[in-house]
Every structure is written in structure tokens, then in C-alpha cells.
Design goal:
The complex is a heterodimer of chains A (167) and B (148).
Chain A: H1 2-56, E1 59-63, E2 67-71, E3 77-83, E4 88-93, E5 96-102, E6 104-116, E7 123-125, E8 134-141, E9 144-145, E10 148-149, E11 154-161
Antiparallel strand pairs in A: 1-2, 2-3, 3-4, 4-5, 6-7, 6-8, 8-11, 9-10
Chain B: H1 2-8, H2 13-61, H3 66-70, E1 78-82, E2 94-103, E3 114-125, E4 128-139, H4 144-147
Chain lengths: 167, 148
């Protein structure tokens, strides 16, 4: 009968909509969780690499909002470069370039002096690289799900003291 | 005639009810798994941020002189940090922290030349109270005087 056919088509449609919704939601959730894990992994590796390099370097050679150049303990130059167009953070030493971060939305380097502002944890800003004793770095990375930027950013902030810098 | 009718018969009410119950249980378990997974991830991310805050404060200790460390004005004893301090609007949860500079719990003759610093943060994940602490030692004349 027509009524029975319409009822069964309607019920099948409802069930299909429910199944598709559950599948899409499940897929997005799995991707979101994988994104979080990947972001955390990358962030840890990047911050560990930067912390090691900064702690053991001799001095800061140059600094801008998107790059930081260090003189490593062995005399080589280490360059950290943030590309706002490629959204990557790369580390270059002796002609070898490694990509530390991808999907990097923002990144900033700030140099500080040795002197701490009384009553705070902040340092006076360094006017020149020769005064740099502390490097403050912060970034935010995002991932997309089905081409749409998802709310899976991981924030990383760190203040690293250059051990050898005597100023 | 009876045989033909039996072949055309659909599922009984009991079968449909049991089937729906099984499907419902599976869907509930799936969503429960997602909720737990996201909560665990949130805890891990907030814990990671707490570790960052602790290390950041510890780094600052390296810039202080002995007088500054043992004085009263140079180092704040309490602080507050946000999960995402650079965000324009929603900065996330607040971490409340303390720093305590105390005598070093060792019995050596040079114990007065050392201090123990305990940095602690506490925050809430949902309604759950969470805390982390980091303990380090600071020596007045550097470690080399005691090692070499």
C-alpha cells in the first residue's frame, strides 16, 4: 500500500539521517582528538629543541618578529624562521633545515635583559641583541577538519635564559 | 496460506525493542567514549600548560642574585597565569600559583648558603581541583664551589 511504503521510506530516511549524523560527528571527533595529540607532540619537540639551542648558545646574533639568529656553542649559526605565509617554523643550522611547526598561526620572539623588574617575573626589554639574556617565545598552531579551521589550537609560551650570555 | 503469511511477517515488537536497545547502548557508549577522550585530552593540555608556567617561573630564578632571592621585594610570592595569555577574548582557565623560598632541608655545613624554592600552581578542570609543584635548589656561590 502507498501509506505503508511512505511510512517505511520516511522511517528509513530518519534512520539514515541519524546514522550519517553519528558517522560525521564520530569522524570529526576522531580527527579532533588526533589533531590535539599531533599538536602536543609537535609543540613538545619544538619547544625542547628551542630550549636546548637557546640555553647552550653563545649569544643572540639578530632578532625580529619572525626570526631569531643564534651563535651556537660550536660557532655555527642557528636560525629560527617563522613564515606567516607557509605557517611554518623552521630551524636551520649548517645548511640543514628542519620544520619544527606546521599550521602555525602566530609566533613572536621577545628579547629581555638580565635585570628583572622588581616584584614581577618580567625582565626589562633588551634594546639590542647584545643585551639579550632572556628569549620569550610564544606561538599558536591550528589544524583544520574538512578544510575548516577547527578549534584545536595549542598555545605554547616559554621564557628561556641563555646560560652563557654574560650581560 | 498460513505458511505464506508467516514468510511475509516483519519483526515482532520484542525483536525491534531488543534491537533498538542494543543500538542505543552502542551509541551511548560511543558518545561516552568521546566525552571521556576529550576530557582526558583537556586534562593533558592543561597539565602541559601548568608545566610551562612552572618552568617559566623557574627560569626567572636564574636571573636573580642571592640578595634578590632572599629579599622580600624582588620576587612575588603569588601569581596568576591564564591558559592562553595571548588570546584576544577567551583566555581560558586561570592558574593560581605560589612561590616559597625556604631553608634548604639538608644537614651539611653549607646549608645556610642554599635555599629551597617550591613553585606550585593550582587550577580547576571542570569541578576537579588540580595542582602541580616544582622544587629546585639555589646555591649562593654556585654549584662549582661544592663539586670542585
Amino acid at each position: 500500500m502507498l501509506i505503508e511504503a511512505m511510512m517505511s521510506i520516511g522511517l528509513t530516511g530518519l534512520i539514515m539521517i541519524a546514522l550519517v549524523s553519528i558517522s560525521v560527528f564520530s569522524g570529526r571527533s576522531f580527527v579532533a582528538m588526533a589533531n590535539y595529540v599531533e599538536l602536543d607532540d609537535n609543540n613538545r619537540i619544538a619547544i625542547d629543541t628551542m630550549t636546548r639551542d637557546l640555553r647552550e648558545c653563545n649569544r643572540v646574533l639578530s632578532s625580529s618578529t619572525t626570526s631569531l639568529q643564534l651563535e651556537d656553542f660550536d660557532g655555527f649559526t642557528i636560525t629560527f624562521t617563522f613564515s606567516p605565509t607557509l605557517k611554518t617554523l623552521t630551524r636551520t643550522k649548517a645548511g640543514s633545515t628542519t620544520t619544527l611547526l606546521t599550521g602555525c598561526q602566530s609566533l613572536a620572539f621577545t628579547l629581555g635583559q638580565r635585570n628583572t623588574i622588581a616584584g614581577t617575573f618580567d625582565q626589562f626589554p633588551a634594546a639590542t641583541v647584545a643585551e639579550a639574556k632572556v628569549v620569550d617565545v610564544s606561538w599558536r598552531c591550528v589544524r583544520t577538519i574538512l578544510g575548516v579551521t577547527a578549534n584545536t589550537e595549542a598555545v605554547q609560551t616559554a621564557k628561556i635564559v641563555i646560560r652563557k650570555q654574560g650581560t | 496460506m498460513r505458511v505464506a503469511r508467516k514468510k511475509l511477517a516483519a519483526f515482532s515488537l520484542v525483536e525491534v525493542t531488543v534491537g533498538l536497545g542494543i543500538v542505543g547502548t552502542c551509541v551511548a557508549a560511543l558518545f561516552s567514549g568521546f566525552t571521556t577522550g576529550f576530557f582526558t585530552l583537556r586534562m593533558a593540555r592543561e597539565n602541559l600548560r601548568a608545566t610551562q608556567i612552572l618552568l617559566q617561573k623557574t627560569e626567572t630564578l636564574r636571573l636573580l642574585s642571592w640578595d634578590q632571592l632572599t629579599g622580600t621585594n624582588a620576587l612575588p610570592t603569588v601569581f596568576a597565569e591564564r591558559y592562553d595569555p595571548n588570546a584576544a577574548t577567551d583566555k581560558g582557565i586561570t592558574y593560581n600559583g605560589t612561590i616559597a623560598v625556604t631553608t634548604c632541608p639538608i644537614s651539611s655545613s653549607y646549608s645556610n648558603e642554599m635555599k629551597m624554592v617550591v613553585i606550585a600552581v593550582n587550577w580547576k578542570t571542570g569541578s576537579m581541583d588540580r595542582n602541580r609543584s616544582y622544587t629546585t635548589y639555589v646555591s649562593r656561590y654556585g654549584l662549582q664551589n661544592y663539586i670542585y
